[in-house]
Amino acid sequence: MFDSPQRPFDENDLHALADGQLSPERAQAVRAQLGADQAERVAHWAAQRAQLQSLYASIATEPLPDVLLTAANRLQALQDRQTQLWRWGGMAASVLLAFGLGWTLHGQWSGQATSAPLPMASEQRFAQQAAVAHAVYQPEQRHPVEVDAAQQEHLVQWLSKRLGRPLKLPVLTPQGFELVGGRLLPGESGARAQFMYQNAAGLRITLYLGALNGAGADETAFRLYADGPVPAFYWLDQGFGYALSGSLGRDALLALATAVHQQL
To answer: Is 161 or 1 the better-scoring residue by pLDDT?
Structure first.
């Protein structure tokens, strides 16, 4: 059925417009029908998409790991051999090929197991997610948070309910930072909360927190995660993870993390 560019748009069209997936004619027709709020939402999504892509742009130019290249080459050779085996022996030959393919790939991956990098620990992934969330939301001028500081009581009650634990908002006014507000975010093991603060110069820091599966009850010392878009100090306390992120020097960020920890 012909899809007219002038047909009414829906939520899928808005996401496709933000992702650049509409034809030029359809995109122009949708933009012509957008209200102010809808246009703002599309612009917000497009900005988020661009920020996320910029964080991982370098990955697209990285060479494939040797283990994948080797496996791909062996698979191609086996596929070429399959053509010959079908000609020579039909079904019986294909059974032998299936066995050989499985054994070859088994040996390939088993042989590489000892040299493969270890998976990132859950605490480090938590800190990485905190740093990425900071990089995505801190540049926002109109919508940096879901609930602003003027509704602080509602913000704390809402996020406490969603995270299943009473939360407390640290006060960082003595350190020169005022609360902007907060938002709810998804995480690997449940909901996450992000609180944003800003100083007089417009510099923003974010506190990211949430429960971590498998985390012990004991408190951990502060650890610095410096491999993300911004540095973050993170720690665990009674099965809950905390990460403070911001474009600050190590000592300044550690002093803020200490102030947060003392209040929590």
So the answer is: 161
